[in-house]
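User: Now give one protein:

AI:
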Amino acid sequence: MVIRSVANILLSNSLRTVSYNFKQAVEALSGLQSNAEYIRNHVKTNADDNSVKSITIKYLERSGLTLNDLDELSVIHVTGTKGKGTTCALCECILRRSGYRTGFFTSPHLIEVYERIRIDGEPLQRETFAKYFWKVFDELEHKKEHEYDMPHFFSFMTILAFHVFLNEKVDVTILEVGIGGEVDCTNIIRNTCVAGITSLGIDHTNLLGNSLKTIAWHKAGIFKKGCKAFTVPQDKRSMAVLNRRSLEKGCQLNIVKPLEEKISKVINTNMPLEIFRLNAGLAISLANAWVTFNGFPALQNYVVEKAIEKFNWQGRYEIVSINNSRFFMDGAHTSESLEICKDWYLKNTKFSSNIKVLVFNATGDRNVRQFLKILHKCHFQQVYLTPNVAVSKQMDDVKEPIQRCQVFKRAWEELERKTGFKADSISTCVDVSGAFRKILDNNVKKCDVLVTGSIHLVGAALNVINIRKTNDSS
């Protein structure tokens, strides 16, 4: 074990308290094993699934917390393939507007890493994030037994969130699963009051399997004995797995219907109505179940309706105007969600004479050919394939992602040969900034731009939009 003198540790900590440097925190985070690297290594080594949680517990305890400490949190745990972020965000909004102090852990972030941890609906301030970050990071760094003895990125962020929520004394913790459920880092918690499962689909097959049955098995891993469990309607095979798992775990599973149409009238969102109703129905059920579980007064209908009316979740079915062009952004990353995204875009551009433009990327082991086949039906006139990077600083950083984009370009050209419909141009770009520059500066006519395929791509796009707006106003 690396041993440091007490004097050095005290000096280091005293210097750290002088300036909780956010930039250095982000740099230190980037030095941890990334989620993509972790997934590749997990698959390559065929790691024991139980080891994921046991390793997370090891680092949790090194950071100064125990599972008994986590038992103090009152948790709503949510997983699923599609809509879990939206469901969590709306559930949080309802409970916050009902007077409860909320802690919300979500992933991934769109622009800044501190967006993942929220208190009362607001992301941590940079200074606050840095303060908590260095407290946990230094503790883990001091107790390393070898050079690489640190948690990977998502595991660290999960542990950090637990520290924040306990210190901030939240009434309720809304916890969004990273991947799967059964062996996810968030699933070390034991005091789950309410568990929810959103719509299931094929995703992360290298970790969860390539069938809905195996994926459903993993998702249902968040069920705990005695908790109130809910799911939206699923296909019969998935539903059978979820029911069987709920019996194994000792909880009753309830199927939630979509939000009633009479309440849907107050919806103020670009999201397709049927999707919002599905997620909102689950969110309301989770919030109601939590107050009931804890013996609190029932939620007021007017509060729920106000939460729905004011709800906004960035990067999901979002429309932003720049220089008279419209950018339609959604982080769809499964075949099912891309079908919905495609229909949403076509509906909103049906009577538009603007140039149709696609900005696309996809990551991981996803079926990109199927994704492109779905999107090709939009008959885009311009296609830009770009890494999930707002502004690239070094070509080496985007070399591999650009190679993937070139593969996507060949797949798109193959679709053109098969269907007979050709775009006017297909380009690979080194970053999103370069793609947007070509779209906004090179086109005389207005454009309707669809940005999709990855939530990370949408985050990079929002970052570029913020930069352009700042530059335009200065």
About this structure: The chain has two domains: 6-310, 318-473. The first strand starts at residue 75 and ends at 79. Residues 1-19 have pLDDT under 50 and may be disordered.
